Every structure is written in C-alpha cells, then in structure tokens.
Amino acid sequence: MKRLKYILLSFVFAFGALSSCDEKLDINTDPLAATSADPNAVLPFVFVQYSSRKVTELGTRIPDVSQYISDTFNSPKNGNTSIFLTGNTWGMMYNQILGNLSLVKADAEAAGPTSNNVNAIATILSAHIFYELTSLWEEVPFTQALNGQEFPSPEFDDQQTVLNGIVAMYDEAIALIDNMPAEGNFSITANSDMFYGGDMASWRILANSLKLRALMMLRSGGANVDAQINATLNQPLMESNGQAAYLEYSGQPGAQNGMLTIITAFFGPDNESQNVFGPGDPIDELLRGSGDPRYDLWVARNDLPAPGIDQFPDPSTSVLSNNIIRATLPDMFMLPSEIDLYKAELALDGFAAAGSADENYRNGVRNNIKWWGQDIPGVITTVGDAEIDAYVASLAPPTANDVFEQQYLASFLMPVRAWNEVRRNQFPVLETPPASTISTILKRFNYPPDEVGSNPNTPANKNTDVPMWFENL
Questions:
Q1: Predicted local distance difference test score (pLDDT) of residue 9
Q2: Which of 139, 124, 151 is nearest to 30 (CA)?
Q3: Separation of alpha carbons 191 and 281, rounded Å
Q4: pTM, two decimal places
C-alpha cells in the first residue's frame, strides 16, 4: 500500500510541476503582463491560489516532518527536498501571490488614502508570504525582491533581516488602517476579502496577531525584541474563534479541501476507509488517555495503536477521522489559541503585559478545543461546553513544556506553523525517520534549481539538517 501511494501521488505532483515548469521561477521578472490590478478581481485569485497550492503542495507533503501525520507521499522528511515541491512552492509564493499583490499595492498607493484598506490587506498578505518563505528556506530575497528592473538578480537577505522587515510591514499596514478617511474608501466586496469581507477592524487585529507571531520567532533567534513584544501585547489581538482567519471550502466540486480531493481521486471515498492519513506518534502520545476531547475529534479507531513513524495506517491501526479530513475542512491561516499560548509562554518568561500564564494557557486549550468541536465551519462532531470546561479545569498549572505541547497541538493541520513550533521550541522531541539520510528531522528546503540557475546571488544550499537562525541552538 505504501509503495502504491507514493507512485500514484507522484503523478499528481509531477503533473502540477510539469504544468508549472514553463513558468520561470526567476522572481526578478514580473510574470504578469498587466501593470495594474483591480483588487476585487485579483484578491480572490490570491486567496484561492495560495490556499489550494498550500493545502496540496505543503499540507499533504510536509505534515510528517513535524509528525502530526504519521507518513505522507513524496515527503522530504528523509532529507531530500523534491525540485517539484520546492519549485512549485517558490513559484506560487513569489510569482503568483507576491507578484499579484505588488500590483494591487502599487495601484492602491497611487490611488491615495481612500485605498488604504486595499493597501493594508495586500501588505498583510505579502508579509505573511515572506514569513512562510523564510520559514522554508531561511535566506530569501526580501529587500530587493519584486523589483526586477532595478535588481535583476536580487540578493538574499538573512532571516533576521527578513523577519524584522516583516514586522515593519505589519506596522505599515496598521498605520494604513488607522489613517483611513472617514468616508469614500474603496469598496472591497465580501467575495474579494475571503477572511473578513472588508472589515478593517478585523484586519487590524490580524496584523497585530501576525506581528506577534513574527516577533516570537525573532525572540527565539536571540533578537532583543522585548519592547516590541510588550507594545504588541498592549494592542488588540485575537481572543475568540469568531476572529479566526481561514479560507472556507464549500465542499462543492472544484471547491473542496485538497486533502480529501487527493483521497477521492486516487483511493476511494474517504480517509477512514482508505487509510491514507494517520495520526503521528506525538499526537497519539500527547492525547491518548489524556481526556482531551480532541483525540476523539481527530482520530478514528483510536482504541487501536497509532501507525507509527514513517508508516501509513491500515485496518489494524488508528486513522485520522473523516470528521476532519473532509471536503469542507477550512484552510486555517491563524487561530486565537495561538495568541493565548504565546501569552502563556511570555508570562512564564516574566512579561507582565502578557497577563497570567495559567489563565492564558487554559484559554488557549479551551479556544482550540472549541474550534475543533464547535466553531470550525462545517463542524460534524461537536463537544459541549461542560466537557470542555471539565477538561480544562483538570489541567495542572503549566510548565514551559506544557505550553509548548499545546502550541504543537494547536498547530494541527497547519503545516508551516507546526514545523516552526517544533523547530522553535525543540518540543515535542521528534524521532528521526528510520530511512532518513540526515541525523535530525528536516530543518530546511533546498533552493529550486530554476532559481539557482537564473539568479547568481542564490546562496549555496546548506545541508537540510542544518538549523535555521531562529532555532538558535
């Protein structure tokens, strides 16, 4: 079965790669013929293209790197990053997403303050893409990126420079929102802004929350950002699941979550019957017997053992539930439980502005369980407040590792964030895959060959087990 899965799914990604190989991955050449962009036409493309590519390229190929899924097809976890995976992801992020957003942003700047809302959204989304790029490759073009005329071969910036620039982009977006005129603003349609329907107060909260995410990575790398963190903690941040940022899938043909689409295209009707995605050992070890309601929400046949590292499930093992591997599973961009748990971590480290470590820890656990058992769009199996409250009340006051454990669980089915939490916290401690060519879990992607060939400033690839700057080992 494992061999069959690798062979069949390689056709999916090989086809996707071949269809995109003609797209030049040199980020210095604007791949778009247009010189302007209607936000209500371009933003939907950006949301959908980013989400669909992320779910299929990253969401089905790297979740076993952080081991919240036991094994996936064509995974780079053993140390070898596929040119198709890296090329498609690099091209999607730089050409299709950042390229389009740069046009939207340029038009908004030319239009003036009445398009501050458009400018802010484009800036926030661009900052997030740069965050994911540096999370995957560490050194990436940033300060000279997307300006092919002035910088035909952009230099690659170190991770600290990129992260500081990302924080500045979020500050820029917040200032744009704060300086919107009282009336006459560009009308962003609900279909164009797939997160908040043009509600800029929600975008401001998201910008602050994403800024804290970037600052936490800078802090992990040893940067002195305590003052910036304190200032951000005093700004409105995500608190409830009603503020979550996610892309919703209707479940209709052509609008289904890619994880299920791959299962139905190549194996059968659903995950439980076809045994494609199983829970990783850390998920099983952290949740089995804990009383945490997420175990029953996420894992079917959980009276059976987990598949084990580097193994697909079979009828004798547990498997991820159809409750979550479904057509309407949303693509989660950011959840409030992440903010709660950052506050708990910071409170344990002495940040008074973060509040109570114990209260934030419990809020994070509660918010995440409520997300999966009540608030997630298309929820199937639900969990009542009484059960959630009883479990949260049973938790002991948190240690740092308790907080790290919950940060890991709260990043479930969020591939880049889960990988970042494991590398940032070094917890949970993950086993090296049995057939790995490296001595640790995967730490980084290699640069796509097309970019190496087109840009002489591309750094030499480091071994894929070399930690990134933010790990600060």
A1: 42
A2: 151
A3: 40
A4: 0.93
Helices (H), 73-225: 83-91, 99-111, 116-137, 159-178, 200-220
Which structural domains are found in the chain, ordered by start? 2-466 (1.25.40.390)
Q: Report the 10 Å Cβ neighbour count for 252.
A: 9
406-460 residue pLDDT tens: 999 999 999 999 999 999 999 999 999 998 999 999 999 999 999 999 999 999 9
Q: Of 317, 311, 435, which Cα lies nearest the Cα of 2?
A: 311
In sequence order, which residues have a C-beta less than 8 Å from that of residue 73 and are 6 or more positions away? 5, 6, 8, 9, 10, 60, 61
Mean pLDDT of the chain: 92
Helix (H) or strand (E) holding 156: strand 156-157
Count how many residues are written for the chain. Answer: 473
Q: What is the DSSP string of 311-360?
A: ----TTS-EE-TTTSSTT--EEEE-HHHHHHHHHHHHHTT-GGG--HHHH
Neighbours of 400 (CB within 10 A): 14
Instruction: Answer for the pair 192, 40: CB distance below 8 angstroms, yes or no.
Output: yes
| CA–CA separation, 51 and 71 (whole Å) | 22
